[in-house]
Amino acid sequence: MRMGFEETKSASSSVSARIIAAGIVIAFCYWASTVLVTLLVAVLAAYFLDPVVTGMERIRIPRAIGSLLVVLVALALLAAAGWSLVERVDQFGRDWPKYRAPLRAAAQVVNKRLENLEANVSEITPSPRAGERVVTVAESHPVREALLGRLGSLYTFVLAATFVPFLVFFMLAAKRQVWHATMQLFPAGERTQVKETLADVTQVLRSYVVGTALVGLILVLASWLFFLALGLEFPFLAGLVSGLCNLVPYLGVILSWVPPLLIGLEQFHGAGPFVGIFAMLTFFHIVTANLLIPALVGWRVRLNALALTVSLLFWGWLWGAVGLVLAIPITAVLKVICDHVESLQPVGRWLSA
């Protein structure tokens, strides 16, 4: 009887310890989000660029020089794409006055509806009785508050983006040394299993990054050509933003509607073109989710719909928009680890069921 009580107590203590450990890990992920997100973005970029560096190594280019060249070329391409995007955004900004009128008209309609609703509600709200003190709250300045609130986030983003190229270079140049040092962290009897696990993680991350990049390129090109055929102004800008937004699971289809909606308010004065835009972008999203991603990404990243939704909710809550982007690779890596740890294999099977 005493032995059974002690076993129950031990099991309860083990569960409590796991819950506390999980809480500590979640708190660390929240408070160290900048560091962790920077590292994860650098890791994904390194996995994406590593095949190029390996190919250069086969033609007798030292790995350090190849890594430097690849990082510099990637930065140049990003700078060129960013400059092109800035030019188009600047042109959109110069043409903003003609888009402002329909937006203001739509806002006035919504504002009038809200005023009518407030008037109806105020009719059933009791008026203040004589002698009661009425407290007036000073009007806030939402634009100023939003700008001040975003300064810290912008500084964090710039700081993280500055470190990413250096991290990617070091990860690419010192790949073999890092791999060897990682193996030394584990006992000799477990290194074979760790090596297999890391090899599977490499395949999953590389297939996810390359497959997602191909899917994103297809979406951007398809959206661009569709907007070009429709005669929408700024088709490349709208196609780029809309296509990348359409990559986000579930919410992406709604986010992809916003760029053509804002640009098309001045051009189109009926509901027909907007219905066509929404229908086509929704079709792109359905094809992406059911054909492109399973064909180019899903053969390695095997996650069921429930696990995918829960991971998106959790990492989106923890890290915001960046969490939505990183949720799938993080969960896929966790599944690989669970598949190679005997005590966690039921969790791995549940994630892919």
Overall description:
The protein is mostly helical. It has a domain at 28-77 and 148-186. Helices cover 83% and strands 0% of the residues. The chain contains 14 helices and no strands. The protein has helices at residues 2-31, 33-58, 63-94, 96-124, 142-173, 175-183, 191-230, 235-245, 252-255, 258-267, 271-296, 305-319, 321-340, 345-352. Helix 2 crosses helix 3 (63-94), helix 3 (63-94) packs antiparallel against helix 5 (142-173) and helix 12 crosses helix 13 (321-340). The longest helix has 40 residues, at 191-230. The radius of gyration is 26 Å and the shape is globular. The two termini are 40 Å apart.
**Shape, please?**
globular
Q: What gap, in angstroms, lies between the N and C termini?
A: 40 Å
Instruction: Name the average pLDDT.
Output: 78
The main pleated sheet reads as: none
Supply the number of helical segments: 14
| Number of strand elements | 0
> How are helices and strands ordered from N to C?
HHHHHHHHHHHHHH
Radius of gyration, CA atoms, in whole angstroms: 26 Å
Low-confidence stretches: 136-144, 146-152
The residue fraction in helices comes out at: over 70%
What proportion of the residues form beta strands (DSSP E)?
under 5%
